[in-house]
Amino acid sequence: MFSFIWRFKYLLSFFCLVLFGFCLKQLFNANIYFDSERIINELEFENKNLNVFDDNNLVFFGISFDDSLSYQNMLDVVTFHKSLKKSEFVKRVFSIVNDRQIINKGLFPISKKILDVKDLKSYTNSINKIYSEKNNFISSDGKKLLFLVENAPNLSKDESRKFINSLYETDFTEGISEVFVSGRSPSELYFEKKVIQEFILLTLVSGFLCFIFLFLITKNIKLVILTVFSVVASIVVSLGLSQILFGGIELVMIITPAILFIVCLSDIMHLTNKQSNVISSKNSFFLSRMNTVGKAVALTSLTTAMSFLTFLVNDIVPILRFGLITASGVVFTLFLATIVYAISIEKGFNQSKPIKKIQQFTDSIINFLKNGQRSVAFHFFMTILTGVGLYGTFNVQIDNYLTDEINKKSKMYHQTNFFDSHFGGIKPITIFLDKDCVDDLEILNQVEKSIKKHGFVVDFSNISSNSIIMQKMGFAERGLVDKYFFICRSSDEGSLSTLKKLNSLESEYVSSGLKFNYSGAGYLFDKLGNNLTRQLIFGLIIAIFSIGLVFFLLNKFDFNYFFIAIIPNLTPIVVCVGLLYINGFYFSLSNAFIFTIVFGLIIDDSIHLISAYNNSRKRKVSKSESLDYVIVNTGEAIVKTTIIVIMCLLPLSFSEFKSVSQLSVITIISAFVAVFFDLVYLPLIIKKLTN
After folding, report:
1. Could you tell me the pTM of the whole model?
2. Which residue from 42, 89, 102, 106 has the fewest beta carbons nearer than 10 Å?
3. Domains of the chain, with CATH numbers?
């Protein structure tokens, strides 16, 4: 293969250029996917109970006033409610305006509106009563209102954007201090806008930092330009492939450019490390280099791609696609890096001449780590660090929040927190009781009180109601007469807490024989989200054993190489989890997949060390001399690639998306710790377990 690449390097580069142009054209019309329904496999949402209320298509609209609502303010609110209801983008609206109360619970129950705006006196009496009894649609201080808006079905993105923007621009009466919008549709539009901004800004910043550092360690502007172009081409082709295959780009793919940056620069760094002018045949030099270092580079790409391909075994569509596209990008990056290296040799600019101070800096790190092998204090510190990691790993919990992807300093979090703080939250949960389980109205009323006692807000219920309310809400025609139901909301307090509260609620009525069933997008997110998080963690285990098996097969079925590959690379992840656990870390859908990525990236350095050691041993060099050689020579490239990883990912730590910022932090910590284990403990393990 290497001979083929050398022979047709210019033809292959032309092919890559054409592919780059084609994929770039695709990206001009690319769609950004952020659809909360698709986080969980569509089959999981085939739940008949979801037909009760389309809570996944619900928009929460809040208004905050400077002072308590005057009579005129409320008249304007009523007018606004009616206009909102008539909107072509709205199916139903619920607010203080149309909220009703059952006043006769007899054989023929009667309901009436709780708000009366017939005149000032009627308004004053009704609003005072509302304050005394507490209402879901108005805050206790009387300054904030909640509107539950169910969107019309099958709205396009442009229609959703138009409607949400109109809500943000609401200013129908005096005294409005701020408006608040939350729910699936607003979140999708917000993330779509932010992901484009961040993709452009953070990618450019990461690229610039890597460009500068790459120049400092090579002092070869031609090589740097060619390398950076190959990185850009890899990113464009990968994301273009997603547009071609899936009709768009997943939100999670915002981290793909950073990963391809790392992979490509790492490949080039190892290939060009400590090279001078080629005196002999350029073809022979290329093939010789590729048969040694090149094989290690190919193996690192293989193992990294394998780690992403493990995402194919889970049910999360965006993560599955991300794994496939990024794995393809890694393979294409290897192909491009090899072509770039061949052209650099042909043109004579493959040499790396780092600035003296940079070289001194890397040398000092390597010397420090070599001395660390003989330092008791160093080993004691690393033992403590590993102990902390193990403690955190065995105690960290799985939890999921609806706002996991939202930075706590962002506008969207501020918007969502408004509803949590004043109206009980936006997490929709529907609680069902089969009608044949109970015929005692008092028990049903007690259940409703218990639901509220456990911190849930009950917006609607068919308890003690007749067809008037049912028809008003559109429930009667949905065939729900065989169930008692409570349409509820809760604050975003995490899946563990919510599921615990539901279990506690259910346990109160075990003796009554009541059978509880749950539905709603919030409940399914909590229940299935935790299971899917476990799938992602299991994916890490698959990646670890798969890569360990590769080492086992490539090293003449020597099982010792399984441990040589795994121990120095799993330990940094364990240490990272422990350190993060101290700061409140938990596994979730937004971060569980990150550790598989990190493992696939940090194992690359171990591969280069092991490969260089085996090549040295083939030349009949002793164990000690071989290890000293690889620590000094390969270690230099490892230190430089680690710096590149940090430089590339550091800007991403400022991302507004939690998964992106956590990827940056976790990878930086793990890569930093991995350097210590690769250059201190990996040589000791190799020395102990190999012949």
Report:
1. 0.80
2. 106
3. 1-30+219-348 (no CATH), 52-188 (no CATH), 354-395+528-691 (1.20.1640.10), 419-526 (3.30.70.260)
